[in-house]
């Protein structure tokens, strides 16, 4: 919704309908209503569910991002533990330490 306010979507709709029809109308509802319905339908398709019912078994983009985030956290924890273990072995084997 902030995007629509940032780009003055109402003025954009007025300009688009003016380009198509040649008339300038302050409230081009014939363009705004299908646009709004399309935004809603696009969100349903993008996030892959309508209310609590999934449209198919594929994960939605949010689930994919959460999975990738968890994988990155796991890889970091493993790498950090390996770094600590290597540091502990170096200290144990170094007689000057």
Measured as a percent range, the helix fraction is over 70%
Structural class: mainly alpha
Beta strand %: under 5%
- The N- to C-terminal Cα distance equals 60 Å
pLDDT under 50 segments (min length 5)? none
Quaternary state of the chains: single chain
Protein model, in words:
The chain has two domains: 1-55; 59-97. It has helices at residues 2-6, 9-21, 29-47, 61-93, and strands at 49-50, 53-54. It contains four helices and two strands; from the N terminus they run αααββα. It is mostly helical and 97 residues long. The chain has a two-stranded antiparallel sheet with strand order 1-2. The mean pLDDT is 83. 72% of the residues lie in helices and 4% in strands.
Spell out the key features of this protein.
2 strands, mainly alpha, about 100 residues, two-stranded antiparallel sheet
């Amino acid at each position: 919704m902030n995007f629509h306010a940032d780009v003055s979507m109402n003025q954009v709709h007025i300009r688009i309908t003016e380009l198509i029809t040649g008339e300038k109308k302050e409230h081009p509802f014939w363009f705004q209503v299908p646009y709004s319905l399309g935004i809603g339908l696009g969100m349903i398709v993008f996030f892959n569910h309508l209310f609590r019912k999934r449209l198919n078994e594929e994960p939605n983009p949010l689930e994919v991002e959460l999975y990738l985030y968890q994988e990155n956290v796991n890889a970091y924890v493993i790498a950090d533990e390996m770094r600590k273990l290597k540091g502990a072995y170096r200290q144990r084997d170094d007689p000057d330490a």
